[in-house]
Amino acid sequence: MSDTKALNVLFLCTHNSARSILAEALLNHMGRGRFVAYSAGSSPRAQQQPHPLALETLRKNGIATDGLHSKSWDSFAAPDAPLMDLVITVCDNAAGEVCPYWPGQPATAHWGYADPSAGDGSDDDKRAAFTQTLYQIRRRLELFTNLPLASLSKLSIQNEARRLAQP
Prior knowledge:
Helix content: 25-40%
Number of strands: 4
Order of helices and strands: EHEHEHEHH
Distance between the termini: 28 Å
Mean pLDDT: 88
CATH architecture: 3-Layer(aba) Sandwich
Largest sheet: 4 strands, parallel
Number of helices: 5
CATH topology: Rossmann fold
CATH superfamily: Response regulator
Radius of gyration: 15 Å
Strand order of the largest sheet: 2-1-3-4
Oligomer: single chain
């Protein structure tokens, strides 16, 4: 990978409404042009939109939400889709599914996070769950974005991304 080419990273989840949206926005915010993050879902519901608390959490943390929308991972398997360098599943359901063929055979990793939108807690409990998930993603991305990616091979990037999934 050269210093001038941004690393394309796709975050996958089931519905593409919470964890993958948080990860996409956060990496684009933290990546300073070195990364271009995308997100998608294995089976987004009809008319799926990003979870309102995901968008609220991002805004409260000074992270742009413009352009965020839920979409199927099929759009990234299309011939005219941007080529991914790394695909990261962020929920256990998506990690267990058979993924489409990704053009360019990107590196892959799994970073599992609990679903902050699950459960019937109070509004404060739900906000706290989204904030906690954002901070967990941020901790991994801080390590990831500081790797010397320009000098790493695709296999090395995959190995480092997978190593970051370990507790």
